[in-house]
């Protein structure tokens, strides 16, 4: 007789994952051992509790065995001392249950040939696993095998704990940052690990066993549902293992280890050890590295977004929402600040860090959610998340003025406005094109502190491509013969060509600009046509020469 339902199954020979991983073997693990399987074990009651750890094996033929137990024991008996009266059987099972016995194993060979009904009922009532052995089993051999397994698991657990301490000690000695600490924690635990600040923003994470979207979606709401304790512990509806990150009473945030499946907590002593050492290493990293966690998180997030390194749009949205940036019903705009040869108006040597801090503070005063971070040496990025009714120009103007107040002449460029976070890379690329087409010292438009795409004309477009050999080759091919003639003969035909092109083909105006007579200009233009094999009366050829001349000016000014 048993209380199994159709979904229950007896322990299989492969059910040894826990023991193999270095943890105490479970009741299921023990039943799968050959020495126990030889007795043809049948789980009569307590199928749902076969995951209980077995910390020792105890053979007893006493009517009150609980007085010799400490909890966690697998109790083996032939059934000879079992009381026959209902009260005695209940007392026997109650004492085993109260002391925390893992399970009761009864051999059905000597006194009983089927599990006693009273014993079955009592075990079912108290939830104590009852296992019946149909064949004779050497209890002493069972004890030896299981104890060897337990001791081996304990030794393995000690070795694993030592490796955990060594790993985090190495991180601390080399001054690792929070990203490295969290990554090692996830690797050692096999769980997703997240570092958050005091307002429940996920700053640093390492995903294990799930996707980024699954780990960070609705992060703030889920995190706030998980209480913050003073010590590592499991809590909240999803069963997270969390620990505070603090130093001398000042709390900076919290590190969370997520369950593999929501509500299914399977954290053991080793996981707690990993999380404790993670919190300690993060505290040391905070003391060693002065850069705030938020700034580092914003930098990394912006770089990944600008370079499209997210696995999916859903991952990107989950990550940025977890950082506190609205990702729904928002419009996004990228702003770049290139320092170039700017003179920083401060004594601090790290000009990018100073500007980054100033822009972050300025963004907060606008009331517009924004992330600020250094995208590359000398280039800072800002991502604005605007509500549908908000205008971006006043915000860009305020941030641009702040950047120029700190570093001048920095180049502030604005990208295109997009309505989906996954298109933000396009906005960053547009801002980058504007920056690449802006020479140092380029005057700003009136009453504006930033450059944008409509500002890019022919000269600035050619400036952006000045290092392209095709541009250089084009300028040399079209104007080289004229320049060579001027060099050999000491003439200045190139200037005459410039005046003619700037005058839109008007020879009289070109003569006045060059201080020459019309006849001299006519003669020089005929020479230019002969040297360049062109027709200066052709509007198309004049355009081509004007482009080449503009490119030449840029190449000479910016070699």
Please give the number of β-strands. 16
Distance between the termini: 93 Å
The poorly predicted ranges are 1-22, 343-349
- How large a portion of the residues is in β-strands, by DSSP E? 5-15%
Q: Please identify the top-level CATH class of the largest domain.
A: Alpha Beta
Q: Outline, from the CA principal axes?
A: rod-shaped
- Structurally, the number of domains stands at 4
| Overall residue-averaged pLDDT value | 87
Describe the protein's architecture and organization:
- The chain has 559 residues and is of the alpha+beta class.
- The protein has four domains: 17-149, Udp-n-acetylmuramoylalanyl-d-glutamate--2,6- Diaminopimelate Ligase, Chain: A, domain 1 (3-Layer(aba) Sandwich); 175-289, GAF domain (Beta-Lactamase, 2-Layer Sandwich); 295-456, Alpha-Beta Plaits (2-Layer Sandwich); 469-557, no CATH class.
- Helix content is 47%, strand content 15%.
- It is built from 21 helices and 16 strands.
- It has helices at 17-20, 27-31, 34-37, 86-99, 117-126, 139-173, 178-189, 212-216, 219-224, 269-288, 293-306, 313-322, 351-366, 392-406, 424-436, 458-464, 469-489, 493-502, 507-514, 518-532, 539-557, and strands spanning 41-45, 56-59, 73-77, 103-107, 130-133, 193-197, 202-206, 233-235, 240-247, 250-257, 331-338, 343-344, 370-376, 379-386, 407-408, 411-414.
- The strands form four sheets. It has a five-stranded mixed beta sheet with strand order 1-5-4-3-2. A five-stranded antiparallel beta sheet has the order 7-6-10-9-8. Strands 13-14-11-16 form a four-stranded antiparallel beta sheet, with helices on both faces.
- The model is unreliable at 1-22 and 343-349 (pLDDT under 50).
């Amino acid at each position: 007789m048993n209380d199994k339902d159709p979904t229950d199954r007896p322990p299989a020979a492969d059910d040894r994952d826990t023991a193999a991983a270095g943890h105490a073997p479970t009741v299921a693990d023990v039943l799968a051992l050959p020495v126990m399987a030889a007795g043809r074990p049948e789980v009569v009651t307590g199928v749902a509790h076969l995951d209980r750890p077995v910390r020792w094996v105890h053979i007893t033929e006493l009517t009150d065995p609980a007085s010799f137990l400490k909890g966690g024991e697998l109790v083996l008996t032939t059934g000879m001392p079992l009381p026959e009266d209902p009260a005695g059987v209940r007392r026997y099972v109650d004492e085993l249950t109260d002391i925390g016995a893992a399970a009761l194993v009864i051999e059905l060979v000597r006194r009983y040939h089927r599990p006693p009904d009273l014993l079955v009922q009592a075990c079912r009532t108290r939830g104590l696993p009852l296992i019946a052995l149909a064949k004779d089993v050497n209890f002493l051999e069972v004890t030896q095998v299981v104890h060897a397994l337990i001791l081996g698991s304990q030794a393995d657990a000690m070795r694993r704990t030592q490796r955990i301490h060594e790993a985090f000690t190495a991180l601390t000695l080399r001054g690792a940052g929070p990203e490295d600490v969290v990554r090692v924690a996830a690797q050692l635990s096999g769980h997703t690990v997240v570092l958050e600040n005091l307002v429940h923003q996920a700053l640093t994470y390492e995903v294990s066993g799930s996707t980024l979207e699954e780990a960070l979606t609705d992060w703030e709401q889920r995190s706030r549902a998980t209480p913050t304790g003073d010590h590592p512990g499991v809590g909240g509806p999803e069963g997270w293992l969390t620990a505070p990150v603090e130093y001398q009473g000042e709390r900076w945030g919290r590190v969370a280890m997520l369950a593999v499946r929501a509500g299914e907590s399977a954290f053991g002593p080793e996981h707690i050890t990993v999380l404790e050492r993670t919190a300690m290493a993060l505290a040391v990293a905070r003391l060693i590295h002065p850069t705030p966690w938020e700034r580092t998180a914003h930098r990394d997030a912006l770089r990944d977004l600008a370079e499209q390194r997210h696995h999916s749009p859903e991952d990107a949205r989950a990550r940025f929402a977890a950082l506190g940036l609205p990702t729904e019903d928002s419009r996004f705009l990228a702003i770049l600040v290139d320092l170039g040869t700017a003179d920083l108006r401060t004594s601090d040597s790290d000009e990018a860090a100073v500007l980054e801090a100033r822009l972050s503070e300025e963004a907060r005063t606008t009331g517009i959610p924004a992330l600020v971070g250094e995208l590359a040496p000398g280039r800072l990025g800002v991502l604005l998340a605007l509500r549908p009714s908000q205008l971006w120009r006043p915000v860009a103007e305020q941030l641009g003025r702040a950047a120029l107040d700190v570093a001048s002449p920095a180049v502030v460029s604005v990208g295109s406005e997009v309505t989906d976070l996954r298109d933000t890379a396009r906005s960053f690329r547009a801002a980058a094109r504007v920056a690449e087409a802006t020479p140092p010292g380029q005057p700003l438009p009136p009453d504006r502190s930033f450059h944008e795409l409509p500002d890019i004309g022919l000269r600035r477009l050619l400036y952006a491509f000045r290092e392209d050999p095709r541009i250089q080759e084009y300028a040399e091919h079209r104007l080289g013969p004229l320049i060579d003639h001027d060099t050999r003969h000491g003439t200045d035909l190139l200037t005459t060509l410039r005046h003619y092109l700037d005058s839109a083909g008007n020879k009289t105006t070109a003569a006045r600009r060059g201080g020459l007579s019309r006849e001299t200009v006519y003669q020089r233009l005929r020479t230019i046509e002969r040297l360049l094999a062109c027709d200066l009366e052709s509007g198309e050829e004049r355009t081509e020469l004007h482009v080449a001349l503009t490119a030449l000016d840029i190449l000479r000014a910016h070699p």
